[in-house]
């Protein structure tokens, strides 16, 4: 076995299965021959019934050779999950029993220290078990606060938010190591996740070990933490999660409680990236900038500000200038920053903040499509050229400031040509739930594609979590363009089930499929809006802008369906969590208010003609299939009966109803735009994946 002796990056902490231990130990002997010290790591293996702690000698190898180390190695120690004294065990036992967790007695190896000072403890404790990963989700759920955004707390904490974050980092011994992560810090209203995903893919293609922290997650919380382009594994997540949880829990006081959910996840991200020894960490701001949990980053390599707009006004202020001021809060003295073209009110504030801190702020042009040399951006929509242009500038600056640009691209003409690694990154970056198209083949019960074309209609989901006025307009333009393109060209669509027409399996588990356009050209297209938004949003701005932008491109909705999300704001779930089935006593007043607004928009009704007394369709029963087949032109508000929309009380019922409709009518092609909420988009993806 050939080992790259030049790179310390051969050493990683990994979660391995027991059957792999013998092979790893054999590899380790080979490595010792090259003069490397051996390492030991406390590991956890999760089965359906228990957690088992092991001490494993392990090495980690990657496909790429990480030639350019950006920092020196450092020593650290951490405890395995649920380590502590007998008194602490009893305290935790009561704590978890109060939350309904189960316990099981188990033992593990003796305590010791390895040659590299990694702490290994002997513990024989009772561990909370029901399902190890779901137990972690329940623990995370306990950190969700019930306080609404923008509502002042009735209790004034002794320490400010960022002060508490610093204290949490100190407890976990992470303070001094954050600067070694070589961070790219990105804030903004729209495009933060896309820009960060482009950055991650570009630098990974350049040969660096990458860490990416984004929010929110759509299906599983592990989506927020990517290592080398992949969601962190369950084993590693549990290892780092319980280590952070236990050590913070030990230090809880009245003045320093457990961190709320996003603060904990931010701390966990730093823990993961430090322990995984990434070369670069790309960190997306959660909300705002100045007071965001991620703003404990003191010395990023470079900062970025994506397009700004009106969002989270209850927290950030109700003017673009106030919002820009919060976003610019991530600027650090003399650290380079990049932004895109903004409205003058926002741009003036960004320049003012940059001047105060002597920040060299540059405005980036959208990426010129010609520089892609015939390749396509992996993320759809014209707006992605703006995000891609920003990502290219951020990555180039990062490479230059870490003194890696010349090492990698010494023979490239950096002004004339885009480096090949950059092109590969721009063409392969991924981000679920943003301008994503999913072909639902489960509505097709036949194994033969030819038979299926003649026996069932098509059900295609267009998913975008737009929830601000600016992003909903971008979403509408993308949807209009996507449905019009599908009329002429075979469309590459992602499918969860139809393996027979598979062309390529993506790293994130989606399947890219190609369908011909011959049969599709004969189908009757129905464009459906599936919508929900949080009550803090303003649907009186979102829905009219969505309708008018689509109409300006010749795209019109046949029907609209308003449905509550499955996700609740008081529970963290995983991809395997049970889908709630109970819908009794569900308050649908918000969905009915959205429906009334929709009918006013469609029929051009002013004022309160459609009041709460209008005969809206009941959500008690599903609408008949004929409801979907009718055009919007056939529905009118005569007699107060509103037939252009429907409220359905359950998202799973809605998906099933849509599938039944296309099965019943082979000539139908239903194109469903799912938007208004990332929670709704995530719930739909979860159902389609099932």
TrEMBL record:
Protein name, UniProt field: tetrahydrofolate synthase
Keywords noted in UniProt: ATP-binding, Ligase, Magnesium, Metal-binding, Nucleotide-binding, One-carbon metabolism
SUPFAM superfamilies associated with the record: MurD-like peptide ligases, catalytic domain, MurD-like peptide ligases, peptide-binding domain
PROSITE patterns per UniProt: FOLYLPOLYGLU_SYNT_2 (PS01012)
EC number: 6.3.2.17
Gene3D superfamilies from the UniProt entry: Mur ligase, C-terminal domain, Mur-like, catalytic domain
Taxonomic source organism: Hevea brasiliensis
Swiss-Prot/TrEMBL catalytic activity: (6S)-5,6,7,8-tetrahydrofolyl-(gamma-L-Glu)(n) + L-glutamate + ATP = (6S)-5,6,7,8-tetrahydrofolyl-(gamma-L-Glu)(n+1) + ADP + phosphate + H(+)
Presence of keyword Cytoplasm: no
Primary enzyme class: ligase
Family that this chain belongs to: Belongs to the folylpolyglutamate synthase family.
UniProt pathway: Cofactor biosynthesis; tetrahydrofolylpolyglutamate biosynthesis
């Amino acid at each position: 076995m050939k080992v790259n002796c030049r790179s310390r990056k051969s050493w990683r902490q990994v979660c391995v299965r027991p059957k792999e231990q013998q092979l790893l130990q054999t590899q380790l002997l080979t490595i010792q021959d090259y003069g490397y010290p051996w390492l030991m790591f406390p590991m956890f293996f999760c089965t359906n019934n228990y957690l088992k702690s092991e001490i494993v000698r392990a090495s980690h190898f990657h496909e790429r050779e990480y030639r350019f180390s950006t920092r020196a190695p450092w020593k650290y120690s951490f405890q395995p999950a649920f380590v502590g004294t007998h008194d602490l065990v009893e305290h935790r036992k009561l704590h978890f029993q109060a939350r309904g967790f189960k316990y099981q007695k188990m033992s593990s190896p003796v305590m010791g220290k390895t040659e590299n000072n990694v702490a290994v403890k002997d513990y024989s404790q009772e561990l909370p078990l029901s399902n190890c990963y779901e137990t972690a989700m329940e623990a995370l759920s306990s950190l969700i606060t019930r306080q609404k955004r923008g509502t002042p707390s009735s209790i004034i904490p002794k320490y400010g938010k960022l002060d508490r974050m610093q204290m949490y980092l100190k407890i976990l011994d992470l303070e001094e190591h954050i600067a070694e992560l070589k961070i790219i810090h990105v804030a903004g209203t729209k495009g933060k996740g896309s820009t960060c995903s482009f950055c991650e893919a570009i630098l990974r293609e350049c040969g660096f070990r990458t860490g990416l922290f984004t929010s929110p997650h759509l299906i599983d919380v592990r989506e927020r933490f990517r290592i080398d382009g992949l969601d962190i594994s369950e084993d590693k997540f549990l290892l780092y999660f319980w280590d952070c949880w236990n050590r913070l829990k030990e230090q809880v006081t009245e003045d320093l409680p457990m961190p709320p959910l996003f603060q904990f996840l931010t701390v966990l991200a730093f823990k993961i990236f430090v322990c995984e020894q990434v070369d670069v960490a790309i960190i997306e701001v959660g909300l705002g900038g100045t007071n965001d949990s991620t703003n404990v980053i003191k010395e990023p390599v470079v900062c970025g500000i994506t397009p700004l707009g009106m969002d989270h006004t209850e927290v950030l202020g109700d003017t673009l200038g106030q919002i820009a001021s919060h976003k610019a809060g991530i600027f650090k003295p003399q650290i380079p920053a990049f932004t895109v073209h903004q409205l003058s009110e926002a741009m003036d504030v960004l320049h003012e903040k940059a001047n105060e801190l002597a920040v060299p702020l540059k405005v980036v042009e959208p990426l010129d499509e010609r520089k892609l040399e015939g390749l396509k951006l992996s993320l759809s929509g014209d707006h992605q050229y703006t995000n891609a242009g920003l990502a290219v500038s951020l990555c180039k600056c990062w490479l230059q400031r870490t003194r890696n640009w010349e090492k990698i691209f010494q023979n490239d003409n950096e002004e004339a040509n885009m480096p090949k690694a950059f092109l590969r990154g721009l063409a392969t970056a991924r981000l679920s739930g943003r301008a994503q198209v999913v072909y639902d083949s489960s509505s097709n019960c036949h194994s033969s594609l030819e038979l299926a074309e003649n026996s069932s209609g098509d059900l295609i989901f267009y998913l975008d979590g737009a929830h601000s006025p600016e992003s909903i307009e971008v979403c509408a333009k993308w949807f209009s363009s996507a449905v019009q393109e599908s009329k002429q060209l075979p469309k590459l669509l992602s499918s969860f089930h139809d393996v027979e027409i598979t062309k390529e399996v993506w790293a994130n588990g989606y399947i890219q499929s190609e369908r011909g356009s011959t049969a599709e050209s004969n189908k009757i297209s129905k464009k459906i809006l599936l919508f929900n938004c949080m009550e803090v949003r303003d649907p009186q701005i979102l829905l009219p802008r969505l309708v008018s932008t689509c109409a300006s491109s010749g795209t019109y909705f046949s029907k609209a369906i308003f449905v509550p999300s499955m996700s609740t704001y008081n529970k963290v779930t995983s991809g395997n969590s049970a889908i709630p089935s109970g819908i009794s006593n569900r308050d649908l007043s918000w969905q009915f208010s959205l429906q009334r607004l929709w009918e006013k928009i469609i029929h051009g009704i002013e004022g309160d003609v459609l009041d709460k007394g209008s005969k809206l369709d009941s959500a008690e029963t599903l609408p008949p299939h004929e409801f979907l087949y009718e055009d919007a032109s056939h529905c009118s508000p005569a007699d107060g009966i509103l037939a252009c929309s429907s409220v359905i009380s359950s998202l799973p019922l809605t998906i099933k109803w849509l599938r039944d409709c296309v099965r019943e009518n082979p000539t139908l092609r239903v194109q469903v735009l799912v938007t208004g909420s990332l929670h709704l988009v995530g719930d739909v993806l979860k159902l389609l994946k099932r």
